[in-house]
Specification:
Layout: E1 3-5, E2 24-25, E3 40-41, H1 51-55, E4 61-63, H2 73-81, E5 107-112, H3 116-125, E6 131-137, H4 145-148, H5 155-158, H6 160-168, E7 173-177, H7 187-193, E8 196-199, E9 205-206, E10 219-221, H8 222-230, E11 247-251, H9 255-265, H10 268-271, H11 278-286, E12 291-295, H12 307-314, E13 319-325, H13 329-334, E14 349-350, E15 360-366, E16 370-374, E17 381-384, E18 388-391, E19 394-397, E20 401-402, E21 411-412, E22 417-418, E23 420-421, E24 424-426, E25 432-438, H14 441-444, H15 452-470, H16 481-486
Parallel strand pairs: 5-6, 5-8, 6-7, 8-25, 10-19, 11-12, 11-19, 12-15, 13-14, 13-15
Antiparallel strand pairs: 1-4, 2-3, 9-20, 16-17, 17-18, 21-22, 23-24, 24-25
Helix pairs in contact: 3-6, 3-15
The structure holds flavin-adenine dinucleotide and iron/sulfur cluster (2 copies).
Organism: Rhodococcus sovatensis
Keywords: FAD, Flavoprotein, Iron, Iron-sulfur, Metal-binding, NADP, Oxidoreductase
Catalytic activity: 2 reduced [2Fe-2S]-[ferredoxin] + NADP(+) + H(+) = 2 oxidized [2Fe-2S]-[ferredoxin] + NADPH
Length: about 475
C-alpha cells in the first residue's frame, strides 16, 4: 500500500531528494514541474519507506490506508498522473541543489522581504558557509503571505512558517523588521552596505477591474478580506462589516476567491484555535451570510482554482455547493477528467435561486463576466454580461494580486513585476543592474504557490553566486550613524 500526496502540497519539492526509488514527480527539470497542483507518488513504484512523509514540511504525505474519507480521492489523483506512463519509467535523474560552495570570502546579502521567496533565498544562500544575511521587512512581523495570506484553516500549509522561522533565528542572519526599503532607508543605501541585495517584495496591490460601481461602499478587495482575517497589521479591524449581509458575490475564481468563500461560510467554531484574527472570528460569529456566489468569467473547463482547493470546499458537510451560470455547465463538469480542477464539482447540485434557509451555500457561477456594480449608497447587485443580475450585499474583487512600482526600481508594468532576467535586475533598456536581484512574486508576477518560490529562489541565488565568483566583493561603506541607529 503506497503513500499519496494530498491537498496541503505546496510543490516545494522537499520530498524528492529523500525518495530512494525516485517515484515522486514531476521533478524540477521535467516539463510538468510548476504546472501541476501537487507532486504525485507513483503507487506502482513506491516501496512504502515513509521517508517522504518525514521530509514534508506541511504534512501533505500520508499512507494510502490512512487517508481520511475526505482525502481518499487523492489515492486516485496520485495514480491518475501515472496512468499513461510506463511503470518503473526511466525518469531523468532528480536534480538536487548544488553542494555548499566553500571558496568564497565572507559576503553580506540584504534580502528585502521575509515571505516564502525571501526564506527560500536565505535557505539557498546559507548553504555557503561564508554568507551573512540581513532580512528587511516593512512589517513588524516576518513571514509575508505565509503569515498574512495563507488561510487560517489551512493549518498544514501554515506549518511552513515554522520551517521559515528557523531561518530567521539562524546565527548568520540578522532581522530588521519595521523598515521599509525605499522609504525608511533608500535603495542606494542598502546597495552600498551589502555585496548584493535581493528584492523579495511580493505583489501588494490588486489587479484592477474597471467597471462602473466597483468603488461603491460594500465593494472591497479579497486582499482586504484576507488581511482582515489573518490580522495583517495594515488592515483595520473593522475593514469588513458582515452585519446584515446575506449574499456575497466574489468576482474571480482563483484559490484566493475559494479561500474567501470557505472562510465566509465556515462554522466559526471550526476556526477556534487557528491563527484567525480575534476580530474576524467575532464578526464571523455574528455573521448573517447565507450564500456566497463565486463568479467565473469563463466555463468550468477553464476554472482558475486548483482541484485540491475546490475539493476542500466540496468535502465540507456543513455547506451546500451548487453550480449555476451557463446551462451546460453541469454536463461540462461531469465530462471533465479527474485531474481537471472543476471535476471536484462532480455531483454537486444545480442552483435553484432562493437564498438558502438551512445550510449555507456556495454557488459557482460559470460564464459570468461582470459589467457593473449597482447601488445608491452602497452595493446592491452585480450585473453580468447577458442581462443577468445577482443581488449582493457585499462584493469581493478577487481577480489577482499585482506588484506596485517602487521609485528607484525598474518596473515592468505589464507583468506587474520588477524588471529582471533570470533573477538579475535589469534596467529599462535591459542592462543588468550590478548587485541587485529579484525573487518570488516580485520576479515572476503574482502567480504560483509557496513551493514554486523555492526553485525560483535557487535560480536567483545561482545567478548571485556566479556574479560574486566572477567579481569578488570590495569594501563596503557603512551607513551614516543616524540611519544606522534606525535600521
Ligand atoms: C490570499 C493568499 C493565499 C495563499 N495561500 C496559499 C496556500 O494556501 N498555499 C500556497 O502554496 N500558496 C499560497 N499563496 C501563494 C503564496 O503566498 C505566494 O506564492 C508567496 O507568498 C509569494 O512569496 P513572496 O515572498 O514573493 O511574497 P510575499 O509573501 O508577499 O512577501 C513579500 C514581503 O516583502 C515585504 N515588503 C514588501 N515591500 C517591502 C519594502 N519596500 N521593504 C521591506 N519589506 C517589503 C512584505 O511586507 C512581505 O513580507 C497564497 C497567496 C495569497 C495571496
Ligand atoms: S514512501 Fe518512500 S518510496 Fe514511497 S514515495 Fe515516499 S519516499 Fe518514495
Ligand atoms: S509540500 Fe513539498 S515535501 Fe510535501 S509533498 Fe509537496 S512537494 Fe513534497
Amino acid at each position: 500500500m503506497a503513500f499519496a500526496i494530498t491537498q496541503n502540497c505546496c510543490n516545494d519539492a522537499s520530498c524528492l531528494s529523500v525518495c530512494p526509488v525516485n517515484c515522486i514527480h514531476p521533478t524540477p527539470g521535467e516539463a510538468d514541474f510548476g504546472k501541476t497542483d501537487l507532486l504525485y507518488i507513483d503507487p506502482r513504484s513506491c516501496i512504502d519507506c515513509g521517508a517522504c512523509a518525514d521530509a514534508c514540511p506541511v504534512d501533505a504525505i500520508t499512507r494510502v490506508s490512512r487517508l481520511t474519507d475526505d482525502q481518499a480521492i487523492y489515492a486516485d489523483i496520485n495514480a491518475e498522473y501515472y496512468q499513461n506512463k510506463p511503470a518503473l519509467a526511466q525518469w531523468d535523474p532528480p536534480k538536487f541543489p548544488p553542494a555548499a560552495v566553500n571558496d568564497f570570502a565572507r559576503f553580506d546579502v540584504a534580502i528585502v522581504g521575509t515571505g516564502p521567496s525571501a526564506s527560500y533565498t536565505a535557505q539557498a544562500l546559507l548553504r555557503v558557509p561564508t554568507s551573512r544575511i540581513t532580512f528587511y521587512d516593512k512589517l513588524d512581523v516576518a513571514g509575508g503571505l505565509a503569515r498574512f495570506g495563507v488561510a487560517p484553516d489551512h493549518i498544514g500549509t501554515r506549518q511552513i512558517s515554522e520551517h521559515f522561522r528557523s531561518l530567521f533565528v539562524h546565527p548568520r542572519v540578522t532581522m530588521k523588521l519595521g523598515v521599509e526599503v525605499g522609504v525608511d532607508i533608500t535603495h542606494e543605501e542598502v546597495h552600498r552596505r551589502y555585496d548584493a541585495v535581493v528584492y523579495a517584495v511580493g505583489a501588494d496591490s490588486d489587479r484592477p477591474l474597471d467597471i462602473p460601481g466597483i468603488d461603491l461602499p460594500g465593494s472591497v478587495s479579497a486582499r482586504t478580506l484576507v488581511g482582515w482575517y489573518t490580522g495583517h497589521p495594515g488592515v483595520r479591524t473593522d475593514a469588513i462589516d458582515l452585519d446584515g449581509i446575506e449574499r456575497v458575490t466574489i468576482i474571480g475564481n482563483g484559490n484566493v476567491a475559494l479561500d474567501a468563500a470557505r472562510i465566509l461560510t465556515a462554522d466559526p467554531e471550526d476556526l477556534v484555535g487557528t491563527d484567525i484574527s480575534s476580530h474576524a472570528l467575532a464578526a464571523l460569529r455574528r455573521s448573517t451570510v447565507k450564500e456566497v456566489v463565486v463568479a467565473a468569467r469563463r466555463g468550468p473547463e477553464f476554472a482558475a482554482f486548483t482541484r485540491s482547493e475546490c475539493q476542500a470546499l466540496v468535502s465540507r458537510r456543513s455547506v451546500e455547493v451548487a453550480v449555476s451560470g451557463q446551462p451546460e455547465a453541469l454536463s461540462v463538469i461531469d465530462d471533465l477528467p479527474i485531474s481537471a480542477p472543476a471535476s471536484a464539482l462532480q455531483g454537486v447540485v444545480n442552483y435553484e435561486g432562493a437564498i438558502p434557509t438551512t445550510k449555507r451555500r456556495i454557488v459557482f457561477a460559470f460564464g459570468r463576466a461582470p459589467v457593473r456594480v449597482n447601488g445608491t449608497d452602497r452595493v446592491e447587485s452585480v450585473d453580468f454580461a447577458g442581462a443577468t443580475t445577482v443581488a449582493s450585499d457585499l462584493v469581493l474583487l478577487a481577480i489577482g494580486y499585482r506588484g506596485t512600482p517602487s521609485p528607484g526600481l525598474p518596473f515592468d508594468v505589464e507583468r506587474g513585476a520588477i524588471r529582471n532576467v533570470g533573477g538579475r535586475m535589469t534596467d529599462e533598456d535591459g542592462t543588468t543592474v550590478n548587485g541587485r536581484y529579484v525573487v518570488g512574486w516580485a520576479k515572476r508576477g503574482a502567480t504560483g504557490g509557496i513551493g514554486d518560490n523555492k526553485v525560483d529562489a535557487e535560480e536567483t541565488v545561482d545567478a548571485l553566486l556566479q556574479d560574486l565568483a566572477n567579481n569578488p566583493p570590495g569594501p563596503k561603506r557603512r551607513l551614516p550613524r543616524v540611519l544606522a541607529r534606525k535600521v
